[in-house]
Amino acid sequence: MSVNFQIDQRVVYPCQGVGKILSIEDKKFKNETIPYYVIYLEVSDMMVMVPVAKAEELKIRAIVAQDVAQQALQVLGEDYEPIPSDWKQRYEMNLALSKKGSIIDNAIVVRALYHRSKVKELPIQERKLYDSTLKLLEDELSLSLGESKEAVDTMILARLNSHL
Question: Which domains are present in the chain?
Answer without folding.
Answer: 10-62 (2.40.10.170), 66-163 (1.20.58.1290)
